[in-house]
Inverse folding.
């Protein structure tokens, strides 16, 4: 079937899960998750795949082995699109991300080298400025308190050098269009707006590396 949005039952499911994150709730409402949450996400990501890359929908189960929070289920469904795109649905609405949340050591080394370079670094700075001008937020993750070793403290792109991850993000609150095909239109528009950022990361960071840390 073609993607036609998420019905209100999908949001109700996550409202309920926030109130009762238990195996009992999950078992009793799994059919809602399968039909109203997972199925639309599968339809959406399959339609996005041809234009933006292969999708991967994350499992709904939390890894609680090293967490104090032992609640078993994620309160959002998320999917990676083409390794540098991300889509998420929760009770708060629809979210989309572009970039790399976490870089492996070899990726991080290439990222810093490219940022420090006068040509490629200046290009990234222009891309980030354009994305922000278009109304999206750009975040650095795992930000160092000081410039990485080997780089001057007065480098013109010192803020970008301090990042261990770089992503753009947009969050839409719950609106009637979420239950229509317009939800896909919002995601497509976001990916188009962030295409230069995703392309820069593919070219200068991702090559010959693991992709598990991308979003």
């Amino acid at each position: 079937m073609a993607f036609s949005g998420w019905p209100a039952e999908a949001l109700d499911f996550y409202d309920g899960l926030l109130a009762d994150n238990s195996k009992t709730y999950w078992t009793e409402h799994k059919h809602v998750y399968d039909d109203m949450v997972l199925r639309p996400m599968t339809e959406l990501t399959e339609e996005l795949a041809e234009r933006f890359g292969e999708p991967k929908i994350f499992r709904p189960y939390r890894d609680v082995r090293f967490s104090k929070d032992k609640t078993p289920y994620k309160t959002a469904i998320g999917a990676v699109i083409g390794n540098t795109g991300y889509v998420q649905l929760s009770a708060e609405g629809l979210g989309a991300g572009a970039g790399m949340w976490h870089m492996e050591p070899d990726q991080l080394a290439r990222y810093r080298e490219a940022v420090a370079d006068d040509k490629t670094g200046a290009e990234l700075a222009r891309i980030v400025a354009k994305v922000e001008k278009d109304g999206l937020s750009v975040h650095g993750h795992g930000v160092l308190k000081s410039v990485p070793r080997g780089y001057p403290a007065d480098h013109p792109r010192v803020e970008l050098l301090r990042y261990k991850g770089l992503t753009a993000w947009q969050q839409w609150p719950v609106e009637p269009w979420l239950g229509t095909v317009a939800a896909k239109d919002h995601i497509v528009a976001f990916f188009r707006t962030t295409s230069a950022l995703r392309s820069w990361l593919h070219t200068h960071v991702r090559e010959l590396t693991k992709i598990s840390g991308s979003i």
